[in-house]
Specification:
With 386 residues, this protein is α/β, with parallel strands linked by helices. The strands form 4 sheets. Strands 7-6-15-16-17-14-18 form a 7-stranded mixed β-sheet, sandwiched between helices. It has a 6-stranded mixed β-sheet with strand order 9-3-2-13-20-19, sandwiched between helices. It has a 4-stranded mixed β-sheet with strand order 1-12-11-10, with no helix packed on it.
Length: 386
């Protein structure tokens, strides 16, 4: 006869220990909730990501975790080299600073902060989730909760349970990257629009090496490995190490980020910018807002209100992603490419607005208005969503 699993009641279960899950667990635990942080992996763990922390990401980190800087090695860059479709668009040497680091150390630091805030450590454990019952069986323990924040990544098992699929294969992005151990202390950060079809390439120098990758819409890139090898040749890189791959939810977000008492955050909710590829800032913000929605709903004694509250809280992220999705065809559609290249090369104002948007000082609105003034009527219709 097998003993029944021991049951433990908590206020919130957070699935996933990346930036979204760690931010949710930290925010909820700091507010006094009993929070279980569940992840099948132990931290530190490897993660495909350029590892670029924009000004937006750094401010959100400070706002959520209360520290000026994450306690991990970071390389600061305030020079960005832009290239597009084989053309050199110049270097901005006084750009708002970006900080570049390794995700295995960054994510580990966030998880450690969440655990120090009081989150209960269930990392390194996987189990069977019943989203309707609010339970998850982990070995000999069954956790029960009124609310769940699922921040379990782009391949989210929770999203598959709720919606039948973690993402839409027609719109999902895909990325490949390699890490080189040789440091590049003086190299600028480099972004190459068009290194993959409807995508970009990146060259990110870090304290202990360089991360190089390409990413784009998966359905448009039958040979992403070929795109990566061509990009490496462009950079003069040979003899690379292991290639890593990962799906990227390029702006195909879920307008209703969850169901019932389950809230999706970060990549699981599709919150990645389809132009810049930024996901860390949206992950941290959505995780924190999911936790705040849970805190508010539980305080009202109405856990069913958590999802509507959360949806309202992250509406600005959805608006920004909609704007980016409207702007993306102007960047990548071949017929509009010459106008975009000319505008980005010649308009210092447009470049500064792009950098300000990347830094989190503004949103896509000014960029869209600037492009509307410079591009023909077909592009105007694209900007307006027509």
């Amino acid at each position: 006869m097998t003993d029944a699993p021991r049951q433990r009641d908590v206020d919130l279960i957070v699935l996933g220990g990346g930036p979204a899950g760690a931010s949710a667990a930290f925010t909820a635990a700091k507010a006094g909730l009993a929070v279980a942080l569940v992840d099948p992996r132990r931290f530190p763990r490897d993660k495909l990501c350029g590892g670029g922390l924009t000004g937006r990401s750094m401010r959100l980190y400070r706002d959520i975790f209360g520290n000026d800087m994450p306690p991990v090695p970071l390389a600061r860059r305030d020079a960005i080299a832009f290239h597009a479709f084989g053309e050199d668009l110049g270097i901005d040497r006084d750009a708002p600073p970006l900080h570049l680091g390794m995700r295995f150390s960054f994510d580990h630091a966030l998880v450690e902060q969440a655990l120090r805030a009081g989150a209960i450590d269930f990392t390194g454990q996987s189990g069977t989730l019943d989203p309707d019952a609010g339970t998850i069986a982990l070995g000999g323990c069954q956790l029960r909760t009124p609310l769940i924040v699922a921040a379990d990544g782009v391949n989210s098992p929770t999203a598959r349970q709720l919606f039948g699929a973690a993402f839409d294969h027609r719109t999902i992005g895909f990325a490949l990257e390699v890490e080189l151990p040789e440091p590049a202390p003086d190299a600028p950060l480099r972004i190459d629009f068009g290194a993959a079809d409807w995508g970009y390439g990146w060259h990110f120098p870090k304290p202990s090496g360089v991360t190089i990758g390409v990413g784009g819409v998966h359905s448009r890139n039958a040979d992403m490995k070929g795109a990566l090898h061509r990009y490496l040749e462009t950079l003069g890189v040979r003899g690379t190490s292991r290639i890593k791959g990962q799906f990227l939810p390029f702006g195909a977000f879920r307008s209703v980020p969850g169901r019932g008492r389950v809230l999706l955050a970060g990549d699981a909710a599709g919150l990645v910018d389809p132009i810049t590829g930024e996901g860390i800032a949206h992950a941290m913000l959505s995780g924190a807002e999911a936790a705040r929605a849970c805190i508010e709903a539980l305080a009202q004694g109405a856990p069913d209100r958590a999802l509507p509250i959360y949806r309202k809280r992250i509406a600005p992220i959805h608006t920004a992603l909609r704007h980016a999705s409207r702007l993306r065809p102007i960047l990548f559609r071949e017929s509009l490419r010459p106008a975009f290249l000319r505008s980005f090369r010649e308009s210092r104002t447009l470049r500064r607005e792009y950098l300000a948007m990347l830094d989190g000082q503004t949103d896509y609105g000014p960029i869209m208005r600037r492009m509307a003034l410079r591009l023909p009527g077909f592009a105007l219709r694209a900007l307006r969503g027509g």
